Predict the structure.
Amino acid sequence: MLSAAIGIIPFVNGITVDLF
């Protein structure tokens, strides 16, 4: 969910944020 908001840096926290 946050992945969409942080779509700017998916390589940094793409997988980590994807879990959230």
Observations:
- Residues 3 and 18 are 5 Å apart (CA to CA).
- The mean pLDDT is 57.
